[in-house]
Design brief:
Blueprint: E1 11-16, E2 25-26, E3 39-40, E4 46-51, E5 56-57, E6 61-62, E7 71-79, E8 82-89, E9 115-121
Antiparallel strand pairs: 1-4, 2-3, 4-5, 4-6, 7-8, 8-9
Length: 126
């Protein structure tokens, strides 16, 4: 059984993992993360709240701005105004580079590189 706790709003909570602005780099190979061969970047998890009644959304916000690592495959749970977001993250990858696949060193050695990280909001994502 499912209940709608918020009878006032028609909000949809959205998380996604685009390239972070300012992180595009040439890879020097056919590897890519941007949809363009030879172009890599750092991905981050962004959040926006869409209002189904008005068709507007909040300004997309980067949830956890890290200087290294890729963040991807986010998911969100909303329950009574409390939001829980989780995602795969490679910030602890000893071989991190936006020019290579996750876990791969320049020498072709692969290392453990992924962890699950999370964030929480108790105010509907405000």
């Amino acid at each position: 059984m499912s209940f709608q706790f918020d009878k006032t709003h028609e909000w949809v909570y959205i998380v996604y993992d685009p390239s972070k602005p300012g992180t595009l780099v040439p890879t020097g190979t056919t590897f890519f993360t941007t949809g363009v061969a030879g172009q890599g970047s750092q991905a981050g998890i962004f959040f926006t709240r869409y209002d189904g009644a008005t068709g507007t959304n909040t300004t997309p916000a980067l949830i956890d701005d890290e200087s290294t690592g890729q963040q991807f495959f986010p998911d969100i749970s909303a329950d009574g105004g409390v939001l829980h977001v989780l995602w795969w993250d490679s910030r602890l990858d000893p071989n991190y580079s936006p020019t290579r696949p996750i876990g791969n060193s320049a020498a072709g050695v692969v290392a453990p590189s992924l962890d699950v990280w999370a964030a929480r909001s108790a105010d509907n994502g405000t």
